[in-house]
Amino acid sequence: MAHIATLGWIHKDLAARNVLVDSGLVCKVSDFGLTRKVDPFTGIYTQTKAMKLPIKWMAPESMRAGSQFSEKTDVWSFGVTCWEIFEYGNAPYRGVKNAQVGGFLAEGARLQRPTTCPEDVYVHVQATWEELPGDRPRFSALASTFTKLVEDNGGVQQCRDIGSDLTGGRARAPSAMSAASAAPSARGGGGDGSSAAGRDRAATLARSSRIQSSSSAP
After folding, report:
1. Among 39-48, 129-138, 172-181, where is mean pLDDT lowest?
2. Which residue from 13, 59, 99, 131 could staple onto 76, CB 3.0 to 4.6 Å apart?
């Protein structure tokens, strides 16, 4: 995503469903159907035509009149994607309809930290959901931050499937949402649970990943 941003493009649909994982567990961003070029002077793309958009992955400024997109709105979506990964594919904002998401965020509510997400990681995920675009990090900064987090925790081989180990290869129940009136230390909202079939599929994928990791070990 840092590379895409340097080229002056925005993805507009970054989500776990659009991240492909190859046999070496390398993640690759896909589905560039909504990708657009930003204005070279403002760094912003303004949506002028009505179209179906991924509301629950969008930043507040993209939902308002004027519908603006930029690198910082993709950064917001990156944060939601991180949350999805730690939730093993559960959809965000459980119980909140698309039409209610804007108001939910305006109240200061955000997605709650999944129990499989380390606090030192979640603090950087939270930074992607700052209300003002200028307060959110750029992808170049996020790339450096997450690279260092991986290195400080034993490298890629140690980090590749820690979440699955913590849950025993089983999908967890979705997190609850917290309201805007929650204590500052519990800033955030919750996720939208998948169906039973979706949870079973997530568990199967988690187990498969663990088996693959074991078979590729020296």
Report:
1. 172-181
2. 59
Percent of the chain with pLDDT over 90: 59
Query: What's the pLDDT score for residue 158?
Result: 65
| Cβ-contact 56, 94 below 8 angstroms | no
pTM over 0.70: yes
200 is catalytic: no
The residues spanned by each domain of the chain are 2-216
Distance between CA atoms of residues 55 and 63, nearest Å:
8
Tell me yes or no: is domain 2-216 CATH 3.90.1280.10.
Answer: no
Torsion angle (degrees, nearest 10) of CA 60, 57, 122, 207: 170
Q: Which listed residue (13, 39, 74, 135) is catalytic?
A: 13
User: What letter represents residue 184's amino acid?
Assistant: P
